[in-house]
Amino acid sequence: MQLHFSPSMRSITISSSNNNGFIDLMKIKVAARHISYRTLFHTILILAFLLPFVFILTALVTLEGVNKCSSFDCLGRRLGPRLLGRVDDSGRLVRDFYKILNEVKAGEIPPDLKLPDSFDQLVSDMKNNQYDAKTFAIMLRGMMEKLEREIRESKFAELMNKHFAASSIPKGIHCLSLRLTDEYSSNAHARKQLPPPELLPLLSDNSHHHFILSTDNILAASVVVTSTVQSSLKPEKIVFHVITDKKTYAGMHSWFALNPVNPAVIEIKGIHQFDWLTRENVPVLEAVENQNGIRNYYHGNHLAGANLSDTSPRKFASKLQARSPKYISLLNHLRIYLPELFPNLDKVVFLDDDVVIQRDLSPLWEIDLEGKVNGAVETCRGEDDWVMSKHFRNYFNFSHPLIARNLDPDECAWAYGMNIFDLRAWRRTNIRETYHSWLKENLKSNLSMWKLGTLPPALIAFKGLVHPIDPSWHMLGLGYQNNTNIESVKKAAVIHYNGQSKPWLQIGFEHLRPFWTKYVNYSNDFLRNCHILES
Q1: CA dihedral defined by 456, 458, 461, 467, rounded to 10 degrees?
Q2: Where in the cell is the protein located (predicted)?
Q3: At a CB cut-off of 8 Å and minimum separation 6, what does 474 contact?
């Protein structure tokens, strides 16, 4: 048998010889070729172009490590899942995990769940116990909630400790008061008359600038007086009236007798030396200072009955500040009786004991109060959103019907600490009576109308009688705003360490303390003997 292919490859002829000598022929046609030479050429050209890239990728995988990728499946993952028909499951896994997290978030943590104490322990428990994703999510949520509770509790504990520190008397300041009181009894120079007899007429001379300071802190009083005198362009025009309580009177008198502030004039008076301050004239304050419920509120357990889960640390800090024992001290309420305590004076500047004077305050007496009584800095507008954002709603409980009926929550508040008072205009008003009336109402309501010291009743009593002065005269917040702008502090006429972090306390802000300590004479023997040292 023989096969014959045609030149075009389109047919095959089969021939064979049989026994009779004849030749059998069979012709078979082959199907037409569908691939042209041109198509074949293009295919070979494309393959020639792609093969070098496949070679390069294969070489890169091999260089990365043969042991890491020894299978075609691994090579496929490296060259691209989609190129080899494999789909990346990471997106689905993430969606599944989100679903599990949402389920755990909506559920409850088992009360008997034992939580690991650290991340390392969590990983170890997962390996040993073969946790599934849901169990891991539950453990993670439990650990996070536990950590949040601990942080919150430590923050409230810190605030409580800070409150106790702010309410206590530092050992050095207590020592100073005792030593100066002893000096008063043994040293005639410490008992000399202040001011001297020849200067007594100046105490009621309205051509001078009269400052009033009410405090039982001798060191703080010395800074206020010294900074005022040193910053004044006319110190000889300054007359200071320092009011203190009976127990501090001897020590306060000794300090200023032994450390004169010439050429300024200074008078030291104890509350017990004012004939006008009788129980008949201040019955409400007597009740405030002695009522057991009020004393328990300011001196008792501040955590008792407090629901810390419903309040923020900042709100809790404000509540603690409102419960400072100083708010039931008569010294803190004295400013409401200035017209009666100084009947011969026309205009005075009242200063708190936690201020520092950095600029001459003489121009305050030139401010036209336009018939108003109180020249004060408003605290509802300013660069500091925390310090200068105070309205009536920040001080009063507007759910109380009496408050809601008489006050506007959006009315702008103002600050105590540095105020210019026109006592002549004051004497034509009923400020004191209004103050007493609202104090009585708050006592009747068990302090449910307000709980922040002496400012709220003053905001009501002086309503409509306050003349706003430029904020540069009085900068607030140095006792609670750690982020106080230093440049603004330097420019302010009066800086006020209102808040718990007083500069004479260890909890005072270090970067703000030098503005106060610069007026402390640390070389004074009394300060040195009481270990009041420059920090």
Answers
A1: -120
A2: Golgi apparatus membrane
A3: 376, 377, 415, 417, 418, 492, 493, 494, 496
* 8 A C-beta contact, residue 180 and residue 250: yes
Of 496, 459, 464, 465, residue with least CA distance to 384: 496
- Separation CA 246–CA 282 (nearest Å): 17
* Burial class of 341 by CB neighbour count within 10 A (0 to 12, 13 to 18, 19+): buried
The pLDDT, as a whole number, for residue 135 is: 82
Structure tokens belonging to residue 68: 């890491």
Nearby residues of 37 by Cβ (< 8 Å), 6 or more positions away = none
Q: Which domains are delineated in the chain?
A: 99-106+114-163 (no CATH), 170-528 (3.90.550.10)
pLDDT digits (tens, 9 = 90+) for 312-349: 766 666 666 666 666 667 888 899 999 999 999 999 99
Q: Of 384, 391, 364, whose CA–CA distance to 489 is shortest?
A: 384
pLDDT given for residue 127 in this prediction: 81
Does the reported pTM lie above 0.85?
Answer: no
Low-confidence ranges of the chain (pLDDT < 50): 66-67, 71-72, 75, 82, 84
| Under 8 Å between Cβ of 535 and 520 | no
Residue 192 DSSP label? -
pLDDT at 481: 81
**CA-based nearest residue to 324, from 499, 89, 133:** 499
Residue 134 CA: distances (Å) to CA of 116, 127, 138, 144, 500: 16, 15, 6, 15, 47
> Are the beta carbons of 323 and 300 closer than 8 angstroms?
no
**Alpha carbon distance 461, 455 (integer Å):** 10
Rounded distance, CA 533 to CA 535, Å?
6
Q: Which residues of 6-23 are buried (b: 16+ CB within 10 A; e: fewer)?
A: eeeeeeeeeeeeeeeeee
Instruction: Tokens for 509, please give them.
Output: 């802000």
Render pLDDT for 215-262 as a digit per residue (tens, 0 to 9).
Answer: 999 999 999 999 999 999 999 999 999 999 999 999 999 999 999 999
DSSP string, 247-265: HHHHHHHHHHHHS--TTSE
Q: Peptide bond preceding 263: is omega within 30 degrees of 0, i.e. cis?
A: yes
